[in-house]
Design a protein that fits this description.
Layout: E1 11-16, H1 20-25, E2 33-37, H2 47-60, E3 67-71, H3 80-90, E4 94-97, H4 103-115, E5 123-128, H5 131-135, H6 137-141, E6 147-152, H7 154-161, H8 173-186, E7 189-192, H9 201-214, E8 218-221, H10 227-234, H11 238-253, E9 260-262, E10 265-267, H12 269-288
Parallel strand pairs: 1-2, 1-8, 2-3, 3-4, 4-5, 5-6, 6-7, 7-8
Antiparallel strand pairs: 9-10
Bound molecules: ligand LIB3CWND and magnesium ion.
Ligand LIB3CWND binds at residues 13-16, 21-22, 25-26, 37, 40-41, 98, 129, 153-156, 193-194, 198, 222-224.
Pfam families: HpcH_HpaI
Domain HpcH/HpaI aldolase/citrate lyase: 10-224
Cofactor: Mg(2+)
Length: 289
């Protein structure tokens, strides 16, 4: 978390790369990252124009400090190889690959990225959205240093599990937790899935909070109207920052005692680590503007 490579990923907005208005609008939105989509949001007749638009956007330098990623079509589809080749040449911050199922697929993707001469800065993000991926998720997470983030595909998971989308997401919690556990063990980031009902502000806020409580780095989004609440929910609040500073001060004052209290609560070394992480996150968000 305190590594220089850490970037805030509270809000990560998908947009269909065939939609030029959305591509333009994204330059004005306070999102941490963008996923320029070539997959599900783009119809078969628009795949080529979407690929050109996404690559042009990634190369343009017009998106400021926002992390720019391209989601290619899945392995085995008619568009996958051409998408991957074009995305590697465009050199975004990351290439997002949907429906990654095995560690072997990660290894093949990394080999292909080298073959297509993707710059070293271009990382791989894997979407975890099938039962097979969940069963293999421990190995997927540690398959390559180039893999730096999991993106949960909750719509595909619901489909494949034959589950239903319900408040509280009980049918998905085991899959979400398994992916998070594996991501944390491997030291990579993990992003929560999307909330489809863009008109349901209350439901969206509750799902953001659930994702924050679970430990996700941030949430993937589908509409500009979701950005503000998501950013606020996944950032440390003013009270959390003040508590983190207070914990570090209390710990420093009691140097060497092994345990102190802050506002009546026990503080040990691990709480100081958490406090430092909160401050590092707050500083990174503030620095990113
Ligand atoms: C959901 C939408 C289809 C709604 O579109 P629309 O009705 O046009 O929205 P608005 O009229 O409210 O739009 C207002 C303005 O905002 C721009 N806009 C809309 N969406 C985006 C966006 N995602 N990024 C950037 N800008 C956006 C509009 O262009 C309007 O701009 P202006 O006219 O200049 O004011 C639409 O929001 C949409 O297409 N969302 C993204 C859908 C998507 O990408 N889906 C694929 C990813 S989700 C997924 O697949 C997850 C995973 O794989 C899984 O399995 O779960
Ligand atoms: Mg999906």
């Amino acid at each position: 978390m305190s590594s220089p490579a850490y970037r805030p990923r509270r809000s990560v907005l998908y947009m269909p790369s065939s939609n030029e208005r959305a591509l333009a609008k994204a330059k004005t939105l306070p999102v941490d990252a963008l996923i320029l989509d070539l997959e599900d949001a783009v119809g078969p007749d628009h795949k080529e124009v979407a690929r050109e638009n996404a690559c042009a956007a990634a190369k343009s330098g017009d998106y400021g400090g926002r992390e720019i990623t391209i989601r290619v079509n899945g392995i085995g589809t008619a568009w996958h190889e051409a998408d991957l080749k074009a995305a590697c040449h465009a050199g975004p911050d990351a290439i997002v690959v949907p429906k990654v199922n095995t560690a072997k697929e990660v290894a093949s993707l990394v080999t292909a990225m080298k073959h297509f001469r993707a710059p070293k800065r271009t990382k791989l993000w894997a979407m975890i959205e099938t039962p097979e991926a969940i069963v293999n998720v421990r190995k997927i997470a540690r398959a390559s240093d180039r893999l730096t983030c999991f993106v949960m595909g909750t719509n595909d998971l619901v489909k494949e599990l034959q589950a239903q989308i319900v408040p509280g997401r009980a049918p998905l919690l085991m899959s979400l937790s398994m992916a998070l556990l594996s991501a944390r063990r491997a030291g990579i980031a993990c992003l929560d899935g999307v909330f489809n009902d863009v008109g349901d502000a209350e439901g969206f806020a509750a799902e953001c909070l659930q994702g924050r409580h679970m430990g996700f780095d941030g949430k993937t989004l589908i509409h500009p109207g979701q950005v503000e609440v998501c950013n606020a929910t996944f950032a440390p609040s003013a009270a959390e920052v003040a508590d983190a500073q207070g914990i570090i001060e209390a710990w420093t004052a009691g140097a060497g005692t092994g345990v102190v209290t802050y506002h009546g609560k026990m503080i040990e070394n691990l709480h100081v680590d958490i406090a430092r992480r909160v401050l590092a996150t707050h500083e990174a968000i503030t620095a990113a503007g």
